[in-house]
Please model this.
Amino acid sequence: MQYSIPRGTYDILPEDSPKWHRVIAEFRKLVEAYGYAEIVTPIFEQAALFERSSGESSDVVKKEMYRFTDRKGREFALRPEGTAPVARSYIENRMDIGSSYTKLYYLGPMFRYDRPQAGRYRQFYQYGVEFIGSNNPYYDAEIIAILWNYLTGLGLKKLHLELNSVGCSVCAKEYDKALRDYFQPYLNQLCPDCQERFERKPRRILDCKVKECGDIAKKAPIQLDYLDEPCREHFSEVQHYLDLMKIPFIINPRIVRGLDYYTNTAFEVIYEGIGAQNALAGGGRYNGLLNQIGGKNIPAVGFAGGFERLFLSLNEEKITLPGPPFPEVFIITIGREAQELIIPYLNIIRVKGIYAEYEPDRASLKAQLKAANNSKAYYALLIGEEEIKQKSALLKNLESGEQKLYSLEPISDLIKTIQNKEL
Ligand SMILES: [Zn+2]
Ligand SMILES: [Zn+2]
Model:
C-alpha cells in the first residue's frame, strides 16, 4: 500500500520553504509597521459560526465546507475563511473593552471542498488583516494600502487594484428592487439556483458562474447608482485617502464579494496573467458581521489573500526568492579519533548559530571533500592525524583555497573567523 496526498492539497517541500519564510516574514514586517498584532485561532470552529456569518444561501456553506460531527455529536467545520473566526474571538475575548479599535492579522490554512485547479486548492494558505472598531473611511484606505504595499513590495508589477462600494443595508434594498425589476423578464432563463436567489438575494445572481446567468447579468443595474448619501460620501472619502496615499485604483462596479456580511467598500487586487483565477487578494468593509454573530454593532474592515496565487504571480514575473541556505562550514574527519575530537565542538559551533554540515557516512577524504564542494559550503574544516595531535582543525576557504590552522581550545577564534568570514 502506497499512500498519497489528498486531492487538492500539497506539501511545502524543503527547497520551497525558504520562499515561504520570506513572503511570511515580509508580511509580518509590513503589518506590524501598521500596528497590527497576530491572532491565531483554531483550524476548526462550530459549523454554525460560518453558516451564521456567511448567510446560509452562500455557496461556501452549501457546498464547499468540510463539515464533521465529533464523538459527542457536535457539528464542526474546518474554517473556510479567516474573518468569522477572528470576529468570534474578538467577541468572546471582549476585545472591544478598553480600546476603541483593534488591529489583527492572521496567517494559516483554510479549507474548501472546491474543484482543484491552478492556484486553487482544498487546503490553501491565507494571510489577512482585520481592523475592528471604526467606520472611518480612512481605515478602508489604510487596509487597502497594506495589501497594495505588500504585493508591490514583493516586486510584483502586473497588478491593479479594483474598487467598488456595495452600499449598506438601507441602500441595498433599493438596489435589490432595481435588480428584481431587471431580472424579472429573464426569470425563466436563469439557472435554478438563481431563480431561488431572485427573491431572497438578487445580488447573488451577479456572482453566478453559469454562463447564461452571467450573460444576462452583464447589463444589470449597478450598486453604485443606488448608493444613499452616507454611502456615497464614504466611498468618495475612501478614494480621497487612496489618492493621498498614492495607491492607484480603478472602479469596477461588478465586484460583489461572495459573502453576505460585506458593506460599503469592496476591493480586489487583480493579477494580469494567471488566467481566470486572477484575484490575488480581496476584502472590504463588513459592518454587519459582528452583530450578525452575536456581538455588538461594531464596524470593521479587512482583507485576505492566498499565498498559492501569490507564488504563481511571483513565478510569472520571475521574481527570485531565497532558496535553501548553503552551509557556512562543512566538517571533514579522517578516522574515528578525529570524529571523537570534533563532535563536541561541532555542537558548540551549531549552538552559536553557524550552519555546519557533517556527513559521517563518508569515510574517505576525497568523498568528504567532494560532498563539501557539492554542498556549496563556504568553508571546510578538516581534522586529520596532524590536527588530532595538536588538538586543532584546518579551516579552508573552498572558493579561494586559502587555509589556516586553528586551535580548538579555546574555539572562540575559529568561531569568530567563520562568523565574520575572515579567511
Ligand atoms: Zn447606504
Ligand atoms: Zn445562475
In short: The first helix runs from residue 17 to 33. The pocket of zinc ion (ligand 1) is lined by residues 167-168, 170-171, 227-228, 230-231 (CB under 6 Å).
